[in-house]
Design brief:
2 domains; 7-stranded mixed β-sheet; 17 helices; 6-stranded mixed β-sheet; 501 residues; Aldehyde Dehydrogenase, Chain A, domain 1; binds nicotinamide-adenine-dinucleotide; globular; alpha/beta
């Protein structure tokens, strides 16, 4: 029996009313286990109205009081970690360890948001001119919306709503229709933590719900995380409807391995960064660029047996290192790209196309794949594969590797593995990428820094969480004040105090 999921509006779960549903699968078995309601424009409007009605009370709640709700929410996530991970993995397919790790990264943003009284302190200039003081303050934007991808159904929403709510906004989350249950459960935990009804709403849906949010005049800011074509559309449509928009998008992350790199460290890093979460990470390493033939030979030789040995299996088997990918469609897209790589002349050193797991014959599995001798004109180099496929592009020298990365359309993350401080420093300074790792393969910034790429990996002016999050979810107001100067002229104040200062 398939379970029918709901929306979360005004502090309660509500049934979908549109009559439209999206299938939610258990990717390990291929079975449809749940149906997610796909909201109509009217259902989205109802959520926006609730968020608008809750705005006055929440935005005038003192920041320290708002932080108390987040402190409680933090404790509730920790208490409910096993349940959240099970919900997440069951719909997404990633291993329970990967699920818990990602929830932990979301939790760090909640912890950062707990410091909101300090983060919202404004600036003050005494005597900008004679008798004139100036102060600036950050005020909430209003009703905000978040549209999130399938690959991190807890972490990515937690990049957004804790920051937005801490800043005094109300929020509507539109999670991915592939794995919507975590979003609903997180909203329920926020209510349990003491969040007033209507402040955080979750509307499940597809393009119809997204378009309703993008065109609703009461939605003032939209955060999006997902693929580049959709992000481009969200940014253009949101901006055309006078909204503040941040759209974090797709990626193709390169890892340079210099001849002097610690090869064991580089290989360990590449295995985790390319194949963890079955490669369904916007910060996954998908291109390895060894510099020099000898480095390339050593790297591929060391990688091949490790990739071949990766244990693929269902999320709840503790032996699984990698789960299935999210849908049959995603699996077919990945297999199609692997076939194109072979046709276009790349060398498939490890072939993971044929995974046969007893009892999971209909699961959406793809085994680890490793391509060598990839060139920059191939589709497997240009496109985001979003699966467990690492491509090796050999570079003759460091400059060639850097030029290759700088010329790629995407600019999310990158890494260099080297023992040479000079090369590392040059790389960090000159590479045209938003997040850079030096001997760190997945340089996802900690929550008090900000996350965001360059080029086709981010549209908008603000990265997410950290101080960029505070800036995105607040409007700056600057107040210049002059008061009738009474001290010297014997004002009431002066008289009352009987002072002759
Ligand atoms: P997606 O773009 O298909 O979907 C993202 C969201 O947009 C979902 O909520 C979906 O319902 C909605 N959407 C889909 N089609 C739409 C349409 N035509 N009109 C309006 N809304 C639409 O992305 P996905 O497949 O869920 O996630 C994977 C992608 O997300 C990858 O490209 C990955 O790199 C990217 N991603 C980026 C980051 C980052 O921080 N840069 C983080 C995680 C994922």
């Amino acid at each position: 029996m398939t379970q029918e999921l709901q929306h979360y509006i005004n502090g309660k779960r509500v049934n979908g009313a549109s009559g439209r549903f999206g299938d939610v699968f258990n990717p390990a078995t291929g079975e449809v286990t749940k149906k997610a309601p796909l909201a109509s424009k009217d259902e989205v409007r109802a959520a926006v109205e609730n968020a608008k009605a809750a705005l006055k009370g929440w935005s005038s709640t003192p920041p320290a009081r708002r932080a108390q709700v987040l402190f409680k929410f933090r404790d509730l996530i920790i208490q409910n970690m096993d349940e959240l991970a099970e919900l997440l993995s069951n719909e997404h397919g990633k291993t329970l360890d990967d699920a818990k790790g990602s929830i932990g990264r979301g939790l760090e943003v909640v912890e950062f948001a707990c410091g909101i009284p300090h983060l919202l302190k404004g600036e003050f200039t005494e005597s900008a001119a004679n008798g004139v003081d100036v102060h600036s303050t950050r005020q909430p934007v209003g009703v905000c919306a978040g549209i999130t991808p399938f690959n991190f159904p807890a972490m990515v929403p937690m990049w957004m709503f804790p920051m937005a709510l801490a800043c005094g906004n109300t929020f509507i989350l539109k999670p991915s229709e592939r794995d919507p249950s975590c979003g609903i459960r997180l909203a329920e935990l926020m209510s349990e933590a003491g969040l007033p009804d209507g402040v955080l709403n979750v509307v499940n849906g597809d393009k119809e719900a997204v378009d309703a949010l993008l065109t609703d005049p009461d939605v003032k800011a939209v955060s999006f995380v997902g693929s580049t074509p959709i992000g481009r559309y969200i940014y253009a449509t949101g901006c055309a409807n006078d909204k503040r928009v941040q759209a974090l998008c797709g990626a193709k992350n390169h890892m340079i391995i210099m001849p002097d790199a610690d090869m064991d460290q580089a290989v360990d890093a590449a295995i985790g960064a390319a194949y963890g979460s079955a490669g369904e990470r916007c910060m996954a390493i998908s291109v390895a660029v060894p510099v020099g033939e000898e480095t390339a030979n050593r790297f591929v030789e060391a990688m091949a047996p490790r990739v071949r040995d990766l244990k693929v299996g269902p999320y709840n088997d503790p032996a699984s290192e990698m789960g299935p990918v999210v849908t049959r469609e995603a699996q077919q897209k990945i297999l199609g790209l692997i076939n194109s790589g072979i046709e276009q002349g790349a060398n498939l050193v490890v072939d993971g196309r044929d995974v046969n797991l007893q009892g999971y014959e209909n699961g959406f599995f793809v085994g680890g794949c490793l391509f060598d001798n990839v060139t920059t004109d191939m589709d497997i180099y240009k496109e985001e594969i979003f699966g467990p496929v690492l491509t090796v592009v050999r570079a003759r020298e460091y400059d060639e590797a850097v030029t290759m990365i700088n010329e790629h359309a995407y600019g999310n993350g990158t890494a260099i593995f080297t023992r040479d401080g000079d090369a590392a420093r040059d790389f960090a300074k000159n590479i045209q990428i938003g997040m850079v790792g030096v001997n760190v393969p997945i340089p996802v910034p900690v929550a008090y820094h900000s996350f965001g790429g360059w080029k086709d990996s981010l549209f908008g002016d603000h990265s997410i969480h950290g101080m960029e999050g505070v800036r995105f979810y607040t409007k700056l107001k600057t107040v210049t004040s002059r008061w009738p100067s009474g001290i010297r002229e014997g004002s009431v104040f002066n008289f009352a105090r009987g002072s002759d200062v």
